[in-house]
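Pasting as-is:
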Amino acid sequence: MEFQASTLWWVLAGALVIAELLTGTFYLLMLALGSVAAAVAAHAGATGSGQFVAAALVGGGATAVWHFKRARAPRSAPAASNADVSLDIGQTVQVHAWQDDGKARVPYRGASWTVRHAGAGEPTAGEHRIVAVHGSELDVLPVDAAAPRA
């Protein structure tokens, strides 16, 4: 039994889709599109080099388009300061006194947390907004200097 060229391209496209599902690398889907284009070219009677050109143009073109589309998309905030990752971002705490090292202990969510002054200048006592979480330490800014809560 002899496989036709189009069958090999379809098998390659399927293998690339499976590899993408296993790895989550979206670029493999773009290469699978190139394999599909080569299979269609094979069905249309293109020569072997024509099939490779179709695969390269479609797969490479789709990969380039996807890359430039992602490059222009806005980046999300780092996980430590991303409110979509940590629900603590934007919450407020009351700081009564600061230590010399720019840290303080505050009650928050039923426990005592260490907070660090994230702004410039001398920290002052009062209400502060959480702007980042680093392990068990919270970075805070005074409420009037912090970004408004979303």
